[in-house]
Design goal:
15% of the residues lie in helices and 42% in strands. By secondary structure, it is mainly beta. The chain folds into 2 domains: 2-191, Beta Barrel (Porin); 245-365, 2-Layer Sandwich (60s Ribosomal Protein L30, Chain: A), CATH 3.30.1330.60. The strands form 2 sheets. An 8-stranded antiparallel barrel has the order 1-2-3-4-5-6-7-8. Strands 9-12-10-11 form a 4-stranded mixed sheet. Residues 329-348 are annotated as: Disordered.
């Protein structure tokens, strides 16, 4: 078990060629999952008050938690070992042990470590210790407090891998213990904050000239005003009604493909849906899908592969989200437009993509 968990700690390095430039853990989600951990007991006071101690021991359990904003989450944690905790000095003592912890964690949402999101936390709980070989023996109930550090990464949007270490201190018998853990969580209620912080400059409107008999102050006399509730700062026509202009707004998103594949992976379904929703929210809209590849393989093959990737996105827009086929165009660029260095695995992963470009035409009211 100890070897397994140590290998698990290398998972970020194993998966790093597949990681993009930033973390992919959602900002809000609940989760339930299971874990395995390996405990190290640093001294003898766990059971023996300096005369006997516990050997290092694997535990297994489950967890339930909620990430309530970009940076903070809470978690409840349970694990146990049933009669398998043994004396470090072969005294023959065997123990049942149960651990309960409640944690609050701070997530470094703006940082990524090899594609994993780091976090740190504090926790408190209890450790129940009972002699497995003596029926009705007294049970030790230890109050534990500790700290934890870890990494998280999401797979297929709803599966979150959790790898970390916790060190806890007994307030009763005054001993330290440490653990490393690996957990797998099923997420629900997944959502993200709007990270678009673009600020639009507002130009104050000049006050409209006051016209006698103009109740709404838009510059058109009440006896000919067909829209008597227009804003005084609005540009209006001869009948006093708001004038609109058509404005085009462009938004771009990307999805990524596996090597030599043109199928849209499940974790990018929401990105395709959001492109459809953005277009449908405007008065008019067009979607352009541009396919790309990395530099591995013949250029002619990559050109065809890029066209297939663009077509796969178009098919998903039409079949899954009812987008009008006449409003979606596709084009493949092969390996000719890389956005990252093709000499690295991480760079090639970013070049295996399709750009979804949504041009939305909106009616925007004009103001003075």
């Amino acid at each position: 078990m100890k070897i397994v968990l140590r290998l698990a700690s290398l998972t970020p390095l194993i998966l790093s060629p597949l990681a993009l430039a930033s973390e992919n853990v959602p900002d809000h989600y609940g989760y339930i999952g299971g874990h395995a951990s390996y405990y190290t007991f640093y001294d003898n006071d766990v059971i023996g008050n300096g005369t006997d101690g516990l050997d290092d021991q694997p535990f297994y359990g489950g967890q339930l938690g909620w990430r309530f904003n970009r940076n903070w989450s809470v978690q409840g944690w349970y694990e146990e070992v049933d009669g398998d905790a043994e004396s470090k000095y072969n005294s023959g003592r065997r123990l049942d042990m149960k651990n309960y912890f409640a944690s609050i964690r701070y997530h470094l949402d703006d940082y990524s470590l090899l594609g994993f999101e780091p976090y740190a936390g504090i926790n408190a709980g209890e450790q129940l210790i009972e002699n497995a070989r003596v029926s009705g023996a007294d049970e030790n109930d230890e109050l534990m407090t500790g700290v934890e550090l870890g990494l998280q990464r999401a797979f297929f949007k709803h599966v979150i891998f959790d790898l970390g270490t916790r060190h806890a201190y007994s307030q009763d018998r005054e001993y330290w213990e440490g653990q490393i853990y690996a957990g797998l969580n099923l997420a629900f209620g997944v959502s993200n904050d709007d990270k678009d912080n673009a600020k639009q400059e507002r130009v104050p409107a000049e006050p409209a000239a006051v016209v006698s008999g103009d109740g709404d102050g838009d510059g058109v006399a009440d006896d000919v005003d067909q829209c008597p509730d227009s804003a005084s700062s609005a540009v209006v026509d001869d009948e006093g009604c708001q004038v609109y202009k058509m404005q085009t707004r462009t938004q771009t998103g990307e999805i990524y493909f596996e090597f030599d594949r043109a199928a849209v992976q499940g974790q990018f379904s929401d990105d395709v849906r959001q492109a459809a929703d953005r277009m449908n929210a405007g008065d008019e809209g067009l979607i352009r899908v541009e396919g790309h590849t990395d530099s591995i393989g013949p250029a002619d093959y990559n050109q065809t592969l890029s066209e297939r990737r663009a077509q796969a996105v178009k098919d998903k827009l039409i079949n899954d989200y009812s987008v009008d086929a006449s409003k979606v165009s596709t084009e493949g660029f092969g390996e000719s437009r890389p956005v990252a260095d093709n000499s690295t695995a991480e760079g090639r992963a970013q070049n295996r993509r399709a750009d979804i470009i949504v041009d939305i035409k909106e009616r925007v009211p004009e103001f003075k």
